[in-house]
Amino acid sequence: MKKKLLDVIFASDKRKNLLILLKDGPQEMESILTSLNTTRQALLPQMRILEEHNLIDHHADTYELTVIGKLLVTEIIPLLDLVDTLSDNIDYWGTHDLGFIPSHLMGRLDELKCSIVFEPDISQIYEINRDFMEKTMESESVTSFTTFLFPNYSSFITEWKDCGVDISLIITRALFEKLRADNYNYLHTFVTERHGGLFVYDGDINVLSFSQNDHCFLLRLFTKDGDFDNKVLVLHGEEALGWGRDLFEYYKQKSVPVTEV
Prior knowledge:
This protein is α+β, with helices and mostly antiparallel strands. It has twelve helices and eleven strands. The protein has helices at residues 5-10, 13-21, 29-36, 40-52, 67-88, 90-95, 103-106, 130-137, 153-162, 173-182, 184-192, 238-253; strands at residues 27-28, 56-59, 62-65, 115-118, 141-146, 166-172, 197-201, 209-212, 217-220, 232-235, 256-257.
């Protein structure tokens, strides 16, 4: 009796890794053994199973995916990438509210690799992430969607501007009105100076903030129960940065540019 395809693919790391390896084209046995760091004796039984289920084929000592094998590998690689993404910090992903992420970006969650959860010391809770601050000063631009502002927000925004960083901010209507009432002069100066722009989002959103410079992307999320959490998810890599840019643009398109206070 043949195995179920799910078992054929996922019940053996050797079979799964061989399928992924062959996605780039046919390979000779010696090259396969080197790439998978295994022996012919250990791999041949797994190859036979894949051949019996019409997922790979071989000619002489060269192996390749069948049409069905190519179809399945094309589908399973995004799944494996997503599993890798979530596995790094599954407790964080699983306990926080992801409802603000639009469906087309939720489908690309596998791009958020290379993540770490940073929990600031109690003395730093009301301060911007220091690494993000420093990396922004080395960046050409910074974008942020935020529902709050750190007490020293004006000082680090001024530092970024002095370094020539292009700043684009999206804030909620409630935060805009608070700024206009509490710090009108600073808000007026920010709006009238040339930079990336200030935008107001009038919709409902359940996120603390997300920010990005040229080097990293930060997420501050509520828990699924709606509670505040001081932990920050920090992401690196081109895919994560591209995902972050698309998230910011999504909300920017739904926001109103501020041209006067």
